[in-house]
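Private note to self, pasted from the team thread so I don't lose it. C-alpha cells:
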C-alpha cells in the first residue's frame, strides 16, 4: 500500500521516478504523482487512476529535473481525488510524499491554521508539509526542519522531502513504515521498496525506526532518533529485474502460482542440506531457545494467518505442545497472559505488516522472550525485531493476492513443527527421515497440481456468473477452505466464505441452493467419510458441488458433483497441494469476470497502516 520513490542525480530523474512508480503498482494504489525541483521552482503532476495517466501528463508538460519524488497513494484520509494525491506542497516551495498515518493530524491542522496556513486537501499528510515549511521559515535547514517536525508527529510515517531553496538535497525520515536508501554512482535514491530502484542500483541502506537522512548526489548521511550521525550497514539486494517482469505470463499472480515448485524447492534447500529437523535452521541460538518452549503463539494477518491455522494442527500433532493462532490486529488489543516459555511466531511476507509488527511489540512487552519471524524479506522490520528467523525463499511476490508466499510459509511452519518435535523427543531418526522424504517430494506434487489447470479453468466458467460461493474443509484442510474463499473474493469480487464442513448444518446450510456453488476440499484422509456425509447434506438441497480430492478417493462425479483429482494423497503436506487448486480456481474465475487480477480494487500488497 502506498509507494515512495525519490532520486537526486546528474541526469533527468523523471524517467527513474516513473519507472519506480510502475514497479510499485503491485502494492495497490488509486492515484499517482511526482514533484520535481526545476529552474528554482517546484513542479508537480498528479492524477487519479493509473501511473500511465500521470506519466502521459508529465510528458505532455515536458517535466525534466535532477531532483524529484514520486508516490502512489492508497486512500486513507480523504477520497480518491487529485487534490488528495501526493506529493503535497507547502507555499509552492517544498514538496513531500508520505506513507503511513499521522494520528495527531487534527491537532496539528488546527495549530497550523492558527498560524495562517491554508489546506488544499483532506489528508493527514499536508500537515507534515506545512510543519516543515513552518520550521524552515524560522531559519532551520531542510534536514533540521524535518527533524523538528517528526518529533511532533504521532503515528507511522515514511517521508521524502524536497525544497526549491535547496535544489541539491533531499531528506527522508522513517517511523513504523519501511523506507530505504539506494546508493548509486554520483546519484542516490529513496524508496519504500527496493523494487522501485532496482533498475538503477542494488546497494541499499535500510533505515531504522526514528532515522532521518540527507541525500545529495555525492553522498548520504543517516541520523538516528536523537539526530546523531550514525553508520547503517549497506546491503546488496538480491531482487533481480527478471523477478519483476512478467515473462510469458499474462499476470504476476499466474506467474507466481507457477513459480511455486521452484520457490518451495529453494525454501527446502537449507532443510535438505541440514538433513532434516535441525534447530539451526531458525538461528544460531535456536537449539537452546526452542528446547525450553512449552507452547506456541502464532500472530499473523490474512493469508499468513491461515498458514498459522494449518501450522497449529502440525505443531500439536508432531511436537505435542499447545499452539494458539491469533489475528495480529486483535491480539495487540487484548490483555495477554504472560508466559516466558512461550514461543511467539510472527508470519509476514513483507516483514513490514504494521498490525503484525505491533502485535510482536505487544507480546514482547508482555514478557515474551523467544520470538521467531517467518518472512520473505530478510532486512525488514519484523525479522530485525525477532530473536530467530526463518527466511522463506519465495522471491519477489508482486501480485496482491499471495500465492507462493503462502506455500513457502507452510514449508517453514512444517519444519518448525519437526524441530520442536525432535527437541521434545517425539521424533526419532526414522520419523525424521520420513518427514524429510515427504518434503523432498513436495515440489513434484505441487507441479502435479499445477497440471490440473485446464480442468480448473473449465470450472471457472461455471463460477463466473455467480455472486456467492461456499468453501468447506475439515481438519488440516479447513484453513485451505478459508484461503480459497479469501482468494476468490480478493480478485473476482465474488462473496465467498470458508467453513469447517462439520459446521454446515449449524447455520450455513440455510444458504445452499442451486445458485450457490460449494467447493469442497476432500483429500483421502481420516476425515474423508465425514466430509462425504457433509456433501450429502448439500446434494439433498440441490447444491452444485466442486470437489478437490485425490486419485485414491471414491468420489463419483455426477451432474451435481464435479470432481478434480490430484494424482495422490501426500499425507500431512496435503494442504500445500490443495492450496494450488484454490489459487488456480480464483485466478481463472477472475479472468472470466474480467477483473484486475494483480491489482484488485481497494487492496494493497504491503499493509503498513492500521
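Design output:
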Amino acid at each position: 500500500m502506498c509507494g515512495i520513490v525519490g532520486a537526486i542525480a546528474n541526469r533527468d530523474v523523471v524517467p527513474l521516478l516513473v519507472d519506480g512508480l510502475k514497479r510499485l503498482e503491485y502494492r495497490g494504489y488509486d492515484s499517482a504523482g511526482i514533484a520535481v525541483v526545476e529552474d528554482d521552482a517546484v513542479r508537480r503532476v498528479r492524477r487519479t487512476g493509473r501511473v500511465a495517466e500521470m506519466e502521459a501528463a508529465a510528458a505532455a508538460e515536458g517535466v525534466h529535473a535532477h531532483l524529484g519524488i514520486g508516490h502512489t497513494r492508497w486512500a486513507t484520509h480523504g477520497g480518491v481525488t487529485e487534490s488528495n494525491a501526493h506529493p503535497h506542497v507547502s507555499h509552492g516551495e517544498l514538496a513531500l510524499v508520505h506513507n503511513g498515518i499521522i494520528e495527531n493530524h487534527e491537532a496539528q491542522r488546527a495549530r497550523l491554521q492558527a498560524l495562517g496556513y491554508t489546506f488544499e486537501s483532506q489528508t493527514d499528510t499536508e500537515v507534515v508539509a506545512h510543519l516543515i515549511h513552518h520550521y524552515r521559515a524560522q531559519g532551520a535547514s531542510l534536514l533540521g526542519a524535518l527533524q523538528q517536525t517528526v518529533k511532533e508527529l504521532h503515528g507511522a510515517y515514511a517521508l521524502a522531502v524536497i525544497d526549491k531553496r535547496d535544489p541539491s538535497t533531499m531528506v527522508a525520515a522513517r517511523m513504523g513504515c519501511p523506507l530505504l536508501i539506494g546508493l548509486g554512482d554520483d546519484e542516490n535514491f529513496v524508496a519504500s521498496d527496493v523494487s522501485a530502484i532496482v533498475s538503477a542500483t542494488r546497494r541499499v541502506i535500510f533505515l531504522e525506526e526514528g532515522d532521518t537522512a540527507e541525500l545529495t548526489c555525492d553522498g548520504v548521511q543517516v541520523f538516528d532518533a536523537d539526530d546523531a550521525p550514525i553508520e547503517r550497514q549497506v546491503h546488496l539486494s538480491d531482487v533481480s529485474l527478471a523477478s519483476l517482469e512478467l515473462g510469458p505470463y499474462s499476470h504476476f499472480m499466474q506467474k507466481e502460482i507457477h513459480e511455486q515448485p521452484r520457490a518451495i524447492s529453494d525454501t527446502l534447500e537449507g532443510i535438505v542440506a541440514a538433513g532434516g529437523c535441525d534447530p539451526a535452521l531458525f538461528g544460531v541460538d535456536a537449539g537452546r531457545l526452542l528446547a525450553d518452549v512449552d507452547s506456541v503463539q502464532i500472530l499473523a494477518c490474512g493469508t499468513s494467518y491461515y498458514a498459522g491455522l494449518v501450522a497449529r494442527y502440525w505443531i500439536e500433532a508432531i511436537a505435542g505442545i499447545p499452539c494458539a493462532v491469533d489475528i495480529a490486529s486483535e491480539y495487540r488489543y487484548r490483555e495477554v497472559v504472560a508466559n516466558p516459555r512461550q514461543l511467539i511466531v510472527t508470519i509476514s511476507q513483507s516483514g513490514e505488516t504494521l498490525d503484525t509488527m505491533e502485535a510482536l511489540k505487544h507480546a514482547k512487552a508482555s514478557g515474551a522472550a523467544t520470538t521467531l519471524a517467518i518472512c520473505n524479506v530478510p532486512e525488514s522490520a519484523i525479522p530485525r525485531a525477532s530473536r530467530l528467523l526463518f527466511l522463506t525463499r519465495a522471491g519477489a511476490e508482486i501480485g496482491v493476492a499471495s500465492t507462493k508466499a503462502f506455500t513457502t510459509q507452510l514449508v517453514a511452519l512444517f519444519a518448525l513443527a519437526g524441530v520442536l518435535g525432535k527437541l521434545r523427543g517425539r521424533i526419532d531418526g526414522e520419523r525424521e527421515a520420513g518427514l524429510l522424504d515427504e518434503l523432498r517430494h513436495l515440489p513434484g506434487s505441487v507441479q502435479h497440481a499445477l497440471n490440473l489447470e485446464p480442468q480448473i479453468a473449465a470450472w471457472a466458467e461455471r463460477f463466473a456468473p455467480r455472486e456467492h460461493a461456499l468453501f468447506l474443509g475439515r481438519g488440516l484442510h479447513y484453513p485451505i477452505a478459508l484461503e480459497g474463499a479469501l482468494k476468490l473474493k480478493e480478485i473476482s469480487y465474488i462473496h465467498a466464505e470458508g467453513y469447517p464442513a462439520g459446521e454446515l448444518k449449524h447455520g450455513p446450510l440455510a444458504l445452499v441452493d442451486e445458485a450457490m456453488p460449494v467447493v469442497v476440499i476432500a483429500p483421502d484422509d481420516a476425515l474423508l467419510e465425514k466430509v462425504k456425509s457433509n456433501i450429502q447434506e448439500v446434494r439433498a438441497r440441490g447444491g452444485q458441488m466442486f470437489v478437490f480430492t485425490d486419485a485414491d478417493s471414491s468420489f463419483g462425479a455426477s451432474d451435481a458433483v464435479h470432481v478434480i483429482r490430484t494424482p495422490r494423497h501426500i499425507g500431512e503436506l496435503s494442504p500445500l497441494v490443495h492450496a494450488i487448486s484454490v489459487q488456480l480456481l480464483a485466478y481463472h474465475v477472475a479472468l472470466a469476470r474480467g477483473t484486475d487480477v494483480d491489482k484488485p480494487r481497494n487492496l494493497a500488497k504491503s499493509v503498513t497502516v492500521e
